[in-house]
Amino acid sequence: MSIESFSPLPLNIFGTWITLLDPSDVPAGMSPNLGDVEFFPGGVRTRAGLASQFSPLAGAPQINGVKTYATTNLVQRFLALDSLGNIYKETSPGVLSLGASGVAAGMYLASTTQYGREYMAFSDGLMGQDMPRQYDDSYLDRVSQTGPGEGPVVADATDPGNISPGVHQCSVIFVTRQGYYTAPSPPVSWTAAGSKKVNVTNIPTGPSNVVARLLAFTASGGANFYEVPATMAINDNTTTSLEVDFTDTILLSGASMDYLFSEIELPDQLGVVAYSERLFWWGERSKMDNWRNVSFDGGWDASGNGRPLGWILDGTFGAGGSREPVNVVWGDAYRITADGVTAERGYISQDAITDAAGNPLLTINTDYSVRAHIARSAGLTAGTLRVNAFSPTMGQLGQGIAVTAAQAGTAYVEFTADLFPVQTTLPSDLTLRVYADGVPAPSGESFLVDNIEIFPTNAVQNASLVRASSTEAPERYDGVTGIQSIAENNGQRIRAAFTLRNNLYFVKERSLYVTADDGVNEPALWQVEEVSNKVGTPSAHGVGYGEEWVVIAGRSGLYYFDGSAPIKLSQEIQPTWDAINWEYGQRLWVLVDTQHKRILVGVPMGSAAQPNQVLVLDYAESLQDPIAALPAGPEHGRKWAPWSISANSCALIERPNGVAEIFLGSNNSSGKIYSPVDGQLSDDGTAINSFYATAFLAATGLSGRNLFGYLTGYVQGAGSLALTAILPGAVTQTALGAWTLASPATQDMEQFTNVQSERVSYQVGTNTVGSWFSMTKLVPWAKPDPFAVVRGTN
Predict the structure, then answer these.
(1) Are 140 and 184 within 8 A, CB to CB?
(2) How many Cβ atoms are within 10 Å of 83's Cβ, its own excluded?
């Protein structure tokens, strides 16, 4: 066939994917269909393949979190969270070792590095589902914790001293290995005769992370607590008695401890961000914070009778309870050991009407629920572990938690149940109780219970609440001054937060807010202003950091934000964006690869419940709308492409060579962590189906039928490049053969085509392991159909 009568339709620009327009209307230089390609100036090529960076993690888990953590020695440490609840760290390049375990299974990680520690929030993507933790390269401890459940025993000592006569009070404070001071124990008092020392006994000891205790006292008749470090600090976790002497003058010149009494134990959270020397947490799963030692981390009766402090041991059925320091969710747990004979074992209770300070606990006209982590020893076969509300005068209110030996497992599982329904009156002797009944057996086997939480049934989540730590005190959370409320009445949950310049932004599901440190007040009094009532995200990972800007992935699209009005970046693929499975939008993630100038958005497409595709936006040449860039040319606009990559997590990870690389946490139950690597010609052994389709082309100036007789192109690569002609409607496809690729290519490729149609889209692609292509020019040759430019009928 001679091509002398054919005219070339040269394509030297290979631009963005567009699904907003009908495929036949996509402008030349753009694509109605492509996949697993990446752009470079003047061309398009097969994307880099995925290479596994480490040996597969044990148990074939999914990888639900990847992060770089900077240690106190400024070592860039790679961390990964798997779906089994294990945290791995890179101990040497390319080698992962188990760093810690005990996180609830199936959690997603959101974290931030501050003060040489990684502060971690664990969630199901919607709200916190496990306690916030901190990792210091050695220990995985919870962030904040309960203080002693009871105060010590205090009385005048026989030794002469300087304590003034009158009523004094004393409290005990735990000090953790991170230097955190817990809330003090409920105060105890004694009436000093004067001129004697005080003998303090039964001083509570804490879980294994407690390294010291402090004693705080009031002056005679006073209500303010002070601590004198030289004489009131116990620098161990074993000493249970101390003789102390002080004058009121010396005491009042000591360190005030009053601020500690308003501290709370931080509940489970969805996310965390560092700002202005503080930590800010959001997505809180609610719990009441004024119960006594329901986490069992507040100490134990010094007599060794197995009673957790703050609880009452039943005189008849209390036997069998004990401290469990090893098989725990965290800290200590409560173990109830069977004897195979006694009907009830380990019975403990506490007041459910008022807390230790006399403030109300359970109240009328409120439906309450209870959750607790429960496990059993391997040999337990009989009995039921119960957590419920009970009144000696009115009996049990509601079912509460009732878990049989058959229902419990050897690993902790969280159980939730209705504590009791709405009550119009509550008995004054109402208690919360924990025990095992049903003749637990056999003897020596046991139930374990940890982390009991009470909450209003109709307020499971504090959806608009932010918890802010004190300045340079990442574990100190004040229940009043450390709270921010972000548009609490707009029916949306806080999903993400980010910092930009000197501001802190909170992203709700469909709105955006800003606040800033005013340099005077605590966060509760900072001003909060609305930035947008349209732009938001459903995901804790729905914001990606660029260079002095961020992108926000929400239900309506991807938006660029630099502090001014948000700009939409995804309009040209809006039908694709709408096809994201927004029921699971909380699992999407966004990453800005500033080195390669790409924005990656991992999304669950179609019916997927986890991210099964990555929508990639190349902004190397521009972030401008490619359609708006016409007629200047699509090369001046942004470029979208879908990548067939399934990953639950993604981050830029600092590597030992000083380069940040993209790491992807797989969700294919392979236990692998991948990275796109130039020159990798498969996805860990699986072929990359890489293809690019041109716009629908026609001979210049004609609207009738065309004969597309020839095709040339400059393509480099390896393997075989399949050529296909696609006719309008994308129903009929014509295979045109294949080009055998080489790199470098010394000449253009050529192919006879002989396709008759009004318009034709040419698709090229490779789909075998080891093959790839890179195309910078494609030239169809066409002319009006020499036999019938128009058909004359339909």
Answers:
(1) no
(2) 23
Please report, as a single letter, which amino acid is at residue 548.
E
Burial class of 645 by CB neighbour count within 10 A (0 to 12, 13 to 18, 19+): buried
Strands 345-351 and 312-313, by their bridges, are: antiparallel
Give the model's pLDDT for residue 611: 98
Cross-strand partners of 497: 506
Which of 97-100's residues contact partners 24+ apart within 8 Å by CB, and which partners? Answer: 99/135, 99/137, 99/140, 100/135, 100/139, 100/140
Tell me the residue type at 339: D
Strand partners, 496: 507
- C-alpha span between 411 and 388 (Å, rounded): 22
Between the alpha carbon of residue 229 and those of residues 203, 471, 483, 736, the distances in Å are 17, 22, 30, 85
The two structure tokens encoding residue 719:
């393997």
240-255 residues labelled b (16+ CB within 10 A) or e (exposed): eebebbbebeebeebe
For residue 229, the SS3 value is helix
Distance of alpha carbon 610 from the chain centroid: 14
Determine the Cα–Cα distance for residues 205 and 239; give it in Å rounded to an integer. 8
Q: Which residues contact 233 (CB under 8 A, 6 or more apart)?
A: 212, 213, 214, 215, 227
End-to-end alpha carbon distance in the chain: 29
Cα radius of gyration rounded to whole Å, the chain: 33
DSSP label of 522: -
Is the predicted pLDDT of residue 784 greater than 90, yes or no?
no
Owner of token pair 């817990």: 182
Amino acid letter, residue 304: G
Tell me the per-residue pLDDT of 147-157, one tens digit each, with 9 for 90 and over. 999 999 999 99
In single-letter form, the type of residue at position 288 comes to M
CA distance 411 to 406: 13
Beta-carbon count within 10 A of 381 CB: 13
Please tell me the predicted confidence (pLDDT) of residue 698. 85
User: Cα(296)–Cα(146) distance, rounded to whole angstroms?
Assistant: 9
Retrieve residue 721's tokens: 């490049």
| Distance of alpha carbon 341 from alpha carbon 8, whole angstroms | 94
DSSP 8-state class, residue 260: G
Q: Give me the phi and psi of 585, to 5 degrees please.
A: -60, -20
Report residue 786's pLDDT band, with 50, 70 and 90 as the boundaries: confident
- Neighbouring CB atoms inside 10 A of 360's CB total 11
DSSP codes joined into one string, 88-144: EEEEETTEEEEEE--PPTT-EEEEEEETTEEEEEEESSSSEEEEEEEE-SS-EEESS
